[in-house]
Amino acid sequence: MMKRLVMMCILGALLQAGNALAEGPAVTSYGFRAGFSTDPDQLVLGGQLSVGEVAPNITFDPNIELGFGDNVTLIAFNLDMHYHFTINNSNWRPYVGAGAGINLINVDSQPPLEDDTRTEVGGQIILGAGVPTRGGNRFFSEMKFGLGDIPSFKMLVGWNFGH
């Protein structure tokens, strides 16, 4: 039941993103991300795009993350939406968000057991903040709290170009 709900949310997000792209906003930045996750405990590397603004203060930030460690290799395709706040007298822009993800998981087992490969879906709650750099790019840091059969926590930092 939970997987169906998440898949419907993913489909809805894809349709919304398609509408937003067709009507106006374009990719405003791209970049890389790195950090760690728990459950499984992994090093996480990846990249993302930012499409903004799809609505006032709201960006669509799809990303891909590769997780390594804990005898698991994980590839996550995430469809994240961020709502950005403005703080007076500060360049920092905190944000909250939510996302849906599809995770391809390969668990490396020791013989005589066979490797376990599966696909899981889940959601995530996101807390983060970004700040522009002097070069016109953007540095960010975020935490993701997993819902469902995906990593339960991720702490990431990243750099977006062209923002």
Structural summary, described in words:
It is a single chain. With 163 residues, the protein is mainly beta. It has a single domain (2-161), classed as Porin. Strand 5 (93-107) and strand 6 (116-132) form a beta hairpin. The chain is built from one helix and eight strands; from the N terminus they run αββββββββ.
SSE topology sketch:
Blueprint: H1 2-23, E1 27-38, E2 42-55, E3 58-69, E4 72-84, E5 93-107, E6 116-132, E7 138-148, E8 153-161
Antiparallel strand pairs: 1-2, 1-8, 2-3, 3-4, 4-5, 5-6, 6-7, 7-8
Give me some keywords for this one.
163 residues; mainly beta; Porin; 8 strands; 1 helix; elongated; eight-stranded antiparallel beta barrel; single chain
**Radius of gyration from CA coordinates:** 16 Å
CATH architecture: Beta Barrel
Number of strands: 8
* Number of helices, where a helix is a run of at least 4 consecutive DSSP H or I residues: 1
**Which structural category fits the helices and strands?**
mainly beta
CATH class: Mainly Beta
Strand count, sense and closure of the main sheet? Answer: 8 strands, antiparallel, barrel
What is the fold-level CATH name, i.e. the topology?
A: Porin
The proportion of residues in beta strands is over 45%
Overall tally of structural domains: 1
Q: What would you call the shape? A: elongated
User: How much helix, percentage-wise, in residues?
Assistant: 10-25%
Strand arrangement within the widest β-sheet reads 1-2-3-4-5-6-7-8
Q: Return residue spans where pLDDT drops below 50 for at least 5 consecutive residues.
A: none
User: What is the chain-wise order of helices and strands?
Assistant: HEEEEEEEE
Give the mean pLDDT.
87
Between the first and last Cα atoms, what is the distance in angstroms? 39 Å
